[in-house]
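The authors assume throughout that readers already know how a fold can be written as discrete tokens. Each protein is reduced to its one-letter sequence and a matching series of backbone shape codes. I therefore recommend that a typical entry be quoted early in the introduction. For illustration, here is how one protein appears when written out as sequence plus structure tokens:
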Amino acid sequence: MFPPKDPEISSELNKTLRIYPFHHNSGGFFVALFEKIEDFDYVEPKELAEVRPAEEELKADELAKESQQPEELKQVEESKQGEKRPDYFNPVCFEEKFPEDWEHIKAFYGLSDPEKILANRLIIDQDSRRRIYYVNNPIRKLIADNMLKKANRIGMKVFQISPDIGDLCKYRLLQEACPLFHDKVTKQAVNVDVEEFTELLTKSPIKLEAMAQKLKDKISELKTGPILIRSSLSLERIPLCFMAWKGIGQISDLSSKEDKALLSTYLEYVSRV
């Protein structure tokens, strides 16, 4: 997941492949081919050898407890294990079904989409209307032709719909969609240098009055609501960026702990190379 610090290894990363989620309507992948150049004997790490007896003892205790369970409890546990979460949804083409909402999103974020590349690939669950997904053309055509009536884990989540948000835009651009939308957002975005990017990422929430005047002026021009923070550094030609929320007098990042750790690692990596 994280770029290695060893320069001998990092110099070989150009021989690998990173596949983003929206390429194949799936999770992301990192692909590399390893060549075994000589035989070797497997030696179990010392740490694993020390832990293994305790794990085996714990499994034995769990099996003993299961054998002592009443028959009724066993049946309940087995039925729970067989249950599947009903996470299928009914996809429809977002721009066709909710054209006014799409125009509102474009106006708020200043989305540049003259050839309708984005509009033609956005879908939404017509029942819950909680998230908007980005899919590839074949999937979108199946949905448009009414040939895909149920979907599950399809495409990449790009917008989260936030209820009870007043007059603000209720469609929040998600962190995982930043690589796709980074060059299309023209209004709710601010370009910052490395020092400013690091400050906004690591000191969140940060009050406007505590910022340097230059950064404060940039952010003051934006509307209250979700904003895109873009760095001058890039990874694989995509600038490092994250989503934040501009409130009254302060900025708070909207990225998870995992996303923040990943961005910090990327920031350190691209600063060295």
